[in-house]
Amino acid sequence: MEEIKTDQKVTTGKVLARYMSFNIKCITKDELPESENSWEKRKESVAKIIASSGCDFVGIQESHREQTKYLSSTLKSVGLKKSNTSWSTNKIYYQTAKWKLLEDGMFGLSDTPDVKAITYGNAVARSCTWSIFEHLESGKKIVVYDTHLDHKVFEANTKMVLQIKAFMKKQHGSYENILLGGDMNEKPGSKNIELLKVNDEILLEDTFIKENYPKNDRTFTGFDNKAKRRIDYIFMREGMKVSNFTILQQKEPFPSDHFPIIAEVFLK
């Protein structure tokens, strides 16, 4: 596994935040504990990766009830706490020693965002979670989003992207520091990724640093070495500055069918 450097860079007057996005692969209905790639076999590796990352925020996708219960209990030892409780399988954890939770929430990615529903034609119900944090030392505030777009119906993703951007603009448009992470199920340059970056009062920029991964930038593994797709992203609001971007590419046995990604960004 790629080495994780947890030491924080110190720059006078600036706050560096580390955000991990990680699709941990949900437990399936017919999954047996002894089966290959089962959660029972992977859970310790997943927790260890998160705990050793030194991240301020961790946005997790596909975390079902049993998985959330395990991670919430395990990650307490390193000061990470879950910021919201909802039906969404997108969970945000934050470092309590450095950040204060001010507000959080979630909305369904559909025409009825207050309830779990599928109205865009997507394969499964999708959602977006968000949390507002205050840096204890500096008082700076940041809004952190975590989402998971559809893996089959890309026309539905267009509606989801527009909904996320509209919510962000209406609810958090006054915040200078915004991060959006998640499994977007879209390749770089796709219509929906470019739509996320449209300047509609909130301009989002991809934190990915191409020079770090000139040959292999895959984030989806499919539990083998064949898949070569970057479909996981962390976006930041224009004006924030990227310090580093890391894909934690591991070798078999994989802890998930996705590699976790980490963006280190300076707040405004």
In short:
The chain has 268 residues and is α+β, with helices and mostly antiparallel strands. The protein has four helices and twelve strands.
CATH homologous superfamily descriptor: Endonuclease/exonuclease/phosphatase
The general outline is globular
* Content-based structural category: alpha+beta
Name the poorly predicted regions.
3-11
Q: How many distinct folded domains?
A: 1
Question: What is the third-level CATH name, the topology?
Answer: Deoxyribonuclease I, Chain A
Cα(first) to Cα(last) distance is 32 Å
User: Mean of residue pLDDT?
Assistant: 93
Largest sheet: 6 strands, mixed
Order of helices and strands: EHEHEEEEEHEHEEEE
Report the radius of gyration as a whole number of Å. Answer: 17 Å
The CATH class, by name, is Alpha Beta
Number of helices: 4
Q: What proportion strand? A: 25-35%
- Largest beta sheet: strand ordering: 3-4-2-1-12-11
Number of β-strand runs = 12
**Helicity level, as a percent range?**
10-25%
CATH architecture classification name: 4-Layer Sandwich
